[in-house]
TrEMBL record:
Residues of the active site: H99
Residues in HIT domain copies: 5-113
Organism: Mesobacillus zeae
Chain positions of motif Histidine triad motif: 97-101
Segment forming the signal sequence: none
GO terms, molecular function: catalytic activity
Protein name in UniProt: HIT family protein
Amino acid sequence: MGDCIFCKIINGEIPAAKVYEDEHVIAFLDISQVTKGHTLVIPKVHKENLYELDDEISQNLFKRVPKIANAIKTAYEPAGLNLLNNNGELAGQSVFHFHMHLIPRYGKGDGFG
Ligand code: 5GP
Ligand code: ZN
């Protein structure tokens, strides 16, 4: 999709630190991590937001989230983890290719919340 930065990551046009990848989904470290291990999970098809996901895309995407969360848990050993998704500029969305944030939590003052 034209100028979409996340499509460029999917296509390998720009680099990203990949956490997980299969035919439908890719997960990679956020370029500006709010906490250590902050990861983004995206579908490989360009969909702008939550409202645009159909059943097939949703299933292929969401079913992988626990596995990715477990990989983060093993790698970083956080005390907790937030799953977050912003839809629309007002809600804080800045990249208009659907994504979920997985934000490991380490305690008060860890940079988030
Ligand atoms: P949003 O604000 O749309 O919910 O989240 C977009 C996220 O994408 C931000 O946390 C931002 O740091 C991240 N991001 C923006 N551009 C890039 C990039 O080129 N590479 C990576 N890995 N993350 C990016
Ligand atoms: Zn895209």
